[in-house]
Every structure is written in C-alpha cells, then in structure tokens.
Design goal:
Structural class: alpha/beta
Distance between the termini: 27 Å
Number of strands: 4
Strand order of the largest sheet: 1-2
Number of domains: 1
Largest sheet: 2 strands, parallel
Radius of gyration: 15 Å
C-alpha cells in the first residue's frame, strides 16, 4: 500500500512529492501530525488501495487520538477499532 507523507508546514507543494514511490499521497499540518482532515484523506486512500468488500473485510486498529474518533461511512467492510488514548503497548 502506498504511504501518506505528512509535512510540517502551512502549504503543500508538489515538489515535496517529487521522486517518491508511485501513488504516495501527501499532506501538510502546522504541527506535523495527522489531524482530522488528514486522517480522512488517509482513510480514503487506504480504502481505495485495500478495496475492502463484503467478502474481504479489513480490520484497522488505531490508537486513541482524537482525529480517529470521526464517523466515516464507507459501509461495514472497513472495521475501525480505536483504543483509549492512554493505552500503552509493549512488544515482548
């Protein structure tokens, strides 16, 4: 799946995406974090490339960031699971 690159700046320039892998998308935010609008852009990009269907459902596991708490309707093929914001993960 092609990635999404987020740049810490106010305006997007296509020059930022020059020479990157095909179908990569980009976005900008003043703090460099993926905020609500960028999350929706990423989610639409994800669904476009993964193409979940009634017979090929996708489980997306997300952290508890506020931008992930949006209601985004793309039917029930992409199941979003979000953990509490303070959840800590440890790989052993």
């Amino acid at each position: 799946m092609p990635p999404m690159m987020i740049f810490k700046r106010k305006q997007m320039s296509e020059l930022l995406l020059k020479g990157i892998p095909r179908d990569t998308i980009g976005g900008v935010s003043e703090n460099g974090w993926r905020e609500s609008e960028l999350f929706i852009k990423w989610l639409e990009h994800f669904v476009h490339h993964v193409q979940p269907s009634e017979y090929r459902k996708v489980l997306s596991v997300l952290d508890g960031h506020a931008s992930h708490k949006l209601q985004h309707s793309n039917s029930n093929q992409n199941i979003l699971v979000s953990f509490k914001g303070e959840s800590k993960w440890q790989v052993t």
